[in-house]
Task: structure prediction
Amino acid sequence: MKLSRAQLSWILYDMANAAFALIVRTVFAPIFFKNYAAENLAPAVATSYWGFVSSAAGIAAGILAPWLGTIADANSGRKKYLGIFMSAGILATVALCFARRGDASLVLWLYFISLVAYMGGNSFYDSLLVDVSSRGGFHRLSSMAYAWGYIGGMIPFLLCLGLLMIVGSDSIFGVKCSFVIAAAWWGTLAWPLFRNVREKPRASQRINPLDGFRRLIATAREIGNYRNVVIFLVAYFLYIDGVGTIFMMAAPLSQDIGIPPGWLFGTILALQLLGFPFTILYGRLARRIPARKLVYLAIGIYVLITLIVGIIPSLGSADAKLAAFLIAAFLIGTSQGGIQSLSRSLFSELIPRERASEFFGFYNIFGKFTTVLGPILIGVAVWLFGRSEYGITLLAVPFLAGAWLLSRVAVPSERRS
Result:
């Protein structure tokens, strides 16, 4: 697939923020919180707090993104708001380095800010897909961006692992340096997007924040006229929330299961290697197989993952638990990028191009790692059963409900075929 400079720059941003997603959100921030900032809390309680804050961040990003999206669409300001959110995320990530032992509240607040910035910014980044690609190229370009995002996360992650090998795997200094590496990578690779991607002119007039809020309310009322968009968003929320939960809670859950840190780091690295070719594969298969059917396949794999995680507490030996963990991790690697990339491109087919930021703001409410339901289920499972793994098993229900709702969506490309 021949790519323009704008398309390459757009893909680079996926590689840029992958450093935050992998290094900060998935690996080091949860470990930093549980082993350092929240060392006086019980492990299961710390995990539940982490889950609740993650949910709160998702809700906050979901409220901000569509409101600002209306302003961005009218004022041709998608890149501007992406830059604001990105800058806030980078600063909050670096600020984690100043937390001290026992500063649980400070770490939770900084993580909340960085996660809101990451997720909120992604809605503006996603909306730029309609500016850099023709409608027929959505699936391929979206899949390619997600695939290279795995490489973008893996390279700085390897730097972090190399640093930890030098200073010690349990070094807090090494973890804090990892936050700096992630922030620097994010800012550096994002720069080409702001230089080379051009937003297509909009016919609408400039509006202020108050007008943007009014337009958001009007759009919320109007969106009911887009039946396929509404059904898709609800379906997407149900299944992608589970995907995001499993991704986000992998590190704290592995500690609850008793997985050694070395195995966790090695598994996460392997996931990046698996994610790249499998995401490319999903994108290529979408040329021959309807993208919706491929999303069904990925949902089925995730339902299997939830069942595997649910049986881990009943396994008698540490080796058996490790084996089950690795099987689940392998399955995640085969489908995580595919389900995200094809969902994004499917949504791009359903919305009006000239209001992409506004609609992708609602997309961010209902999904795009705006994890709300899953972390709450994990927190409830901890309080009721004392096991966070059972919360993952409960995700099978929304996964299946999301697949059923997705079947009710009329996809334009399928009608043409």
Summary: Residues 5-37 form the longest helix (33 residues). The mean pLDDT is 83.
